[in-house]
Amino acid sequence: MEAANDIPILFATPKLWISGQRGEGLRDIWNSVRKGATKIIQRIKDTLGGPRAGPSPAVRGWLAEYGQLEIESIYACKKPVFSIIERIGNWVTQGKLKENMDRQGYEQMMHLYMIVRLKGQNGPTVKIE
């Protein structure tokens, strides 16, 4: 059996499975889907399992980088939340946000954050939200 360009064809039927195959084959796609589903299931279990026992990964990373430095000063800050955010929140909660704000005596929502200055020769200033 020969091809149109006179090169002999060695196998009349192609192999259906090659064990050394690499790339985006069905096996790789299946493993990728299974790995993603496993992560999603674990996140759901973690969420339903209650509050986290320790700090979040972001906090652990921050502590690993700056945890050895002493705090020089902390400023507690606030600034008003954009009114469109308040209106969207009120719409999503079907008016409960405005009711709760009125009952608690708040005129508008505020965004709270801290500015922390750390000691050291090049002590960084960090905004914590």
What are the SSEs and their pairings?
Blueprint: H1 26-48, H2 57-66, E1 71-80, H3 83-92, H4 96-104, E2 110-118, E3 125-128
Antiparallel strand pairs: 1-2, 2-3
If you had to describe this structure to a student in words, what would you say it looks like?
With 129 residues, this protein is of the alpha+beta class. The protein has 4 helices and 3 strands. It has a 3-stranded antiparallel beta sheet, with no helix packed on it. A hairpin with a 6-residue loop joins strand 2 and strand 3 (125-128). The model has no long low-confidence stretch (mean pLDDT 81).
Which descriptors would you attach to this protein?
single chain, 129 residues, alpha+beta, three-stranded antiparallel β-sheet, 4 helices, 3 strands, 18% strand, flat
Q: Could you give the order of strands across the largest sheet?
A: 1-2-3
Rg on CA atoms, Å: 29 Å
From the spread of the alpha carbons, the general shape counts as: flat
Distance between the termini: 72 Å
Low-confidence stretches: none
Name the average pLDDT: 81
Q: What structural class do helix, strand and pairing data support?
A: alpha+beta
Sheet with the most strands, sense and barrel status: 3 strands, antiparallel
H/E element sequence = HHEHHEE
Provide a count of the helices.
4
What portion of residues belong to β-strands? 15-25%
- The strand count comes to 3
Percent helix, as a range, is: 40-55%
